[in-house]
Predict the 3D structure of the following.
Amino acid sequence: MKEIRDKARESMKGFCRVCPICDGRVCAGEVPGMGGLGTGAAFKDNIAALADLKFNMRLIHDVTEPDTTVRLLDQDFSLPVLAAPIGGVSFNMGGKVSEEDYTLSVIEGCAASGTLGCTGDGVPDFIYEAGFAAIAKCGGRGIPFIKPWEDRELYDKLEKAEKTGARIVGMDIDAAGLVTLRKMGRPVTPKPVEELKKIIESTSLKFILKGVMTPGQTRLAVEAGADAIVVSNHGGRVLDHAPGAARVLPSLVDAGDGCLTILVDGGVRCGADVLKLIALGADAVMIGRPVSVAAMGGLKTGVQTYLETIRTELVQAMVMTGTGDIKTVSSDILYAG
Ligand SMILES: Cc1cc2nc3c(=O)[nH]c(=O)nc-3n(C[C@H](O)[C@H](O)[C@H](O)COP(=O)(O)O)c2cc1C
């Protein structure tokens, strides 16, 4: 990973410093770029919320080879980690790698590691086009995310998403807070629940709603017919001072009441973070910036190497907490104080 990170530091110069710990401190306010919005408080709180959680260490048991596999939305995953949708390589990462090469690396690297990568959307159109092309090239093994555009544009993109061969589609409803879209003259707005219902009914694909942060909004996501939500503050890029995702996750899991799959992202930096979020009730997690760094520094191999590092760390944390199976993680592996 060191070589990959060194290469990324070079190719992302001026856009991401590839810090020893990616925590949003030095890049606060760098949107466009890789930072969090404004003071960077929401990005930083994703990290702080995870750091607040500690494990109970347990070694008197027979777990040596824990099972990290999960089945989500009718698909099998070798580990409960997906690459979060990230787009805009030119204005967020410096553009030394093309949007096409970057996106294909994420999709192929994830597929090679037995999981799925997501693709982003934005202005200009080649962001989503690169994502859709990469997923189609990889036989539908990826999840296209679309912004909550108005009317025809949204339905057209949903139709195109189906043609990629993907079996799942997502929408980041929190994109209404994106300064990048506003700056490019194409802001998007929130969607009332009736409209969301129509959108979800219009596609035959499983539907993930990303950017849900309260129990009430979780119940509305269920009402609208979403198959899954991503508990996410968009990596702290849409609302300064939103809480870290790990803080709100347990109340959203309760509100979901088993009616939908719960994914979560924000600040996941190691295998232990993955286990913490699953212990809080998530079915799987997404990782954003560190996957971008791995792709910018080593393309497909970089992504695969990074995911294998996460897998090794996750297995280690499972052994050390006496967790035999990721599907039955108990919240009592977390230290209650
Ligand atoms: C540069 C950048 C671009 C992003 N683009 C998108 C996007 O197109 N669609 C989307 O749903 N989320 C997007 N996100 C948010 C990520 O999917 C994810 O929620 C966030 O990065 C998770 O936090 P982490 O980076 O701390 O892991 C973007 C994030 C970054 C940093």
DSSP finds twelve helices and ten strands in the chain. The CA atoms of residues 135 and 142 lie 5 Å apart. Strands lie at 70-72, 75-77, 81-83, 118-119, 143-146, 168-172, 206-212, 228-231, 261-265, 284-287.
